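How a chain folds remains the central question behind the approach discussed here. In the encoding step, the backbone of a single protein was reduced to a row of integers, each denoting a local shape. We regard such an encoding as a compact summary of how the chain folds. The sequence in question and its structure tokens are set out directly beneath this paragraph:

___
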Amino acid sequence: MDDWRARITALPDEQRTMFEGGTLSQFFLRWPLTASHPTFVGSFYGLLISLSLLGPIVFIQSEAGSSAYDSLRSWAFLCLSLLMLCGIFGGVSSLTVAITKRMPIRLDHRRKFLFPIPFIGLVLFSIARIEPDLISLPDQLGWVLLIAPGPLYIHLSYAPRWRLLERLSRGLELDEQPIKIGKERELDSDLIEAVEENHSEE
């Protein structure tokens, strides 16, 4: 087990939850910290978007009279572009968080709103390209809804959490405030006795 994982396991529940995050963050943090850098997580999100666009792109290209090879080549170029774009977003978030030292934001209550947005974007993109007369919406809206949730999650939640864990792995203090490993401090015994004595007198 990595040293930072052992240190997190020893933390109180509240602090451990802040470091581990939700299900999605825990999935990425199963990887080594180098492989789970926000840049790579952003690129992974770009790959997921690309896979979802494979069907619509091939269909659109075939309707335009392109061969299967040309369709796959167009998709491959789009895939590389999205990998680079989302990776850059992740890298910028990592640099920004390193400068601002912002703490992670948990998205538990907002996840139900963020989760369907890429699917809505995929539907709008497909309709705008395949049936432009059905809904008069620019396909740029579909692109924004497809791409935005991933970088937003990385910037608000994942990149700050990764920065904290990376500092833990190097044995550093967190922004001049050391983490107390183990159980919460017990109250002073004299204070407990004084409180109990006052309570018995009442």
Q: What stands out?
A: The chain has one domain: 3-201.
